[in-house]
């Protein structure tokens, strides 16, 4: 395992603040959330991971935001991970002269691949092969599928369409051609440039858009390795191909994102909930974090209160077993970014309390994990979970190199916090994504790690005589995957 520079992680954490919920919250930062003031509030209200969508904004903007997040994270002493979301081969509309424009039912519009600004009925699109890819009768979707066009005819660089479903359109919105084979590699040249930039800025968590196969993930990992960096790679599942090849993709991914925005156009929209449930179950079994994304509190982009359906959607994703929930437009461009995170946190808290009480869905997870062949890590994590349920355990404490042990325990969604100590910055960073895990980066974690950890707990004032702590341990703390001991301590 490669050791990256600890640019992006709190060093020698001297404070300890457990949130009141264990579900992790990802916020997309954008124009509505790039000021220090808003970033500070988002962190205080529960953001764990900042997502920078490199489909928008420029490198300088992102660089400034990265610096601000780091400064404020240090000031508040709260670990925040930064995730760079790669643009991928997403086809988008170009720049419109005035925006938004309204496309009305029955209108005729022209999608052009020429390098022009959108005006009147002309809408530029950034995919040169559009005219040869579509045929009359095909449907083309704009803006996450909210606008539906039917292709009428193709003339040179122009695709003439009729508006079937109307709606507003702005610059740089997604164009989807479900069912049509598009000749674009999932990891583009532009993506590699973004990775280059992000690695230099100390970002090493990436979400890879429009993944189709395991090789897409490997391409990014190898690219980073050549630059001497370890990376944490989240496969964004938003294409039918990825859903079909999910088992191979999971094998090589460090995490999954259920990218429901594009998924809801690329797949029949009514299949999204089932895919969500299956992906969460698969990721949980594998012990990798899964993020449920897009439209979670969409109406809060404009309104201070969400709909009942949205609140229920967030709660249901948590009850399905998601590690993290994500906000997109709500925090990037919305009117109420801070209120949106606050709302997420309160839904998470209520859902988790109810689940801890009723054990809703938990037995299903346990049965699944214990129903197949178990390895040593599985057995240890299963017994940690047993201990948490039978004794009134105050903390689960685990030293971790790759993060595996902490993630395996987290799979059971225990009601106790898992304090995960690592001397690997990327491990500490990436554990911010896992349900119920509180990662701590420590510079030194040698054979006497138990004293280091208990010392930290004393320093934080959470060491109380009579507390029960479950510790896991490997015989050689330097080796990954070697956890083979479980210790139950009553602190004196
Ligand atoms: N850094 C940014 N600068 C400007 N606008 C942004 C930025 N990040 C997000 N947005 C805006 O917020 C909207 C929602 O964000 P989101 O991250 O879901 O992007 P998207 O373009 O819809 O799709 P995808 O996530 O598939 O790239 C975007 O459509 C865009 O208008
Ligand atoms: C997040 C994202 O890319 C989507 O939902 O499509
Ligand atoms: K993107
Ligand atoms: Mg997408």
Automatic annotation (TrEMBL):
Gene3D superfamilies: Phosphoenolpyruvate-binding domains, PK beta-barrel domain-like, Pyruvate kinase, C-terminal domain. InterPro entries: Pyr_Knase, Pyrv/PenolPyrv_kinase-like_dom, Pyrv_kinase-like_dom_sf, Pyrv_Knase-like_insert_dom_sf, Pyrv_Knase_brl, Pyrv_Knase_C, Pyrv_Knase_C_sf, Pyrv_Knase_insert_dom_sf. The keyword ATP-binding applies. It catalyses: pyruvate + ATP = phosphoenolpyruvate + ADP + H(+). It holds the Pfam family PK. Residues 379-489 form the Pyruvate kinase C-terminal domain. Keywords: ATP-binding, Glycolysis, Kinase, Magnesium, Metal-binding, Nucleotide-binding, Pyruvate, Transferase. Its EC number is 2.7.1.40. Residues 21-341 form the Pyruvate kinase barrel domain. GO terms for molecular function: ATP binding; kinase activity; magnesium ion binding; potassium ion binding; pyruvate kinase activity. Coiled coil: none annotated. It comes from the Archaea. Pathway: Carbohydrate degradation; glycolysis; pyruvate from D-glyceraldehyde 3-phosphate: step 5/5. It is an enzyme of class 2 (transferase). PANTHER family: PYRUVATE KINASE. Belongs to the pyruvate kinase family. NCBIfam families: PRK05826.1 (NF004491), PRK06354.1 (NF004978), pyruv_kin (TIGR01064). This is Pyruvate kinase.
């Amino acid at each position: 395992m490669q050791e990256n520079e600890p640019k992006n992680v709190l060093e020698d954490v001297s404070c300890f603040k457990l949130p009141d919920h264990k579900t992790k919250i990802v916020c997309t930062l954008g124009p509505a959330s790039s000021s220090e003031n808003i970033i500070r509030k988002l962190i205080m209200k529960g953001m764990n991971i900042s997502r920078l969508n490199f489909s928008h904004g420029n490198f300088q903007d992102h660089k400034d935001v990265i610096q601000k997040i780091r400064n404020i994270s240090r000031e508040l002493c709260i670990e925040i991970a930064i995730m760079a979301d790669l643009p991928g081969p997403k086809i988008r509309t170009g720049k419109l002269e005035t925006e938004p424009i309204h496309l009305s039912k029955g209108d005729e519009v022209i999608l052009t691949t020429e390098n022009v600004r959108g005006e009147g009925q002309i809408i530029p699109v950034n995919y040169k092969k559009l005219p040869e890819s579509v045929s009359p009768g095909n449907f083309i979707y704009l803006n996450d599928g909210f606008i539906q066009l039917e292709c009428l005819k193709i003339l040179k660089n122009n695709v003439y369409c009729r508006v079937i479903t109307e709606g507003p359109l702005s610059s740089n919105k997604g164009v989807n051609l479900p069912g049509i084979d598009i000749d674009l590699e999932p990891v583009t040249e532009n993506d590699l440039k973004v990775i280059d930039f992000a690695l230099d800025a100390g970002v090493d968590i990436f979400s890879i858009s429009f993944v189709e196969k395991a090789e897409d993930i490997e391409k990014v990992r190898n690219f980073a390795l050549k630059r001497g960096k370890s990376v944490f790679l989240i496969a964004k599942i938003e294409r039918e191909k990825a859903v079909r090849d999910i088992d191979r993709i999971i094998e090589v991914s460090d995490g999954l994102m259920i990218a429901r925005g594009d998924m809801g156009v690329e797949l029949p929209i009514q299949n999204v909930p089932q895919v969500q449930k299956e992906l969460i179950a698969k990721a949980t079994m594998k012990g990798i974090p899964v993020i449920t994304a897009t439209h979670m509190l969409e109406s809060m982009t404009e309104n201070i209160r969400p709909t009942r359906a949205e609140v229920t959607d967030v709660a249901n994703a948590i009850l399905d077993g998601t590690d993290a929930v994500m906000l997109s437009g709500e925090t990037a461009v919305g009117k109420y970014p801070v209120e949106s995170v606050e709302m997420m946190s309160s839904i998470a808290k209520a859902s988790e309390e109810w689940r801890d009480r009723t054990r809703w869905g938990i037995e299903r997870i346990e049965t699944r994990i214990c129903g197949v062949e178990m390895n040593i890590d599985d057995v240890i994590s299963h017994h940690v979970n047993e201990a948490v349920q039978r004794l009134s355990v105050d903390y689960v404490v685990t030293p971790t190199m790759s993060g595996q042990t902490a993630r395996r325990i987290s799979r059971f969604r225990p009601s106790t916090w898992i304090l995960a100590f690592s001397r690997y910055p990327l491990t500490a960073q990436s554990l911010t994504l896992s349900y119920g895990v509180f990662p701590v980066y420590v510079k030194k974690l040698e054979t006497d790690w138990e004293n280091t950890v208990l010392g930290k707990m004393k320093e934080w004032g959470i060491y109380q005589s009579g507390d029960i702590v479950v510790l896991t341990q490997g015989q050689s703390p330097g080796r990954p995957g070697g956890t083979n001991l479980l210790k139950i301590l009553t602190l004196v």
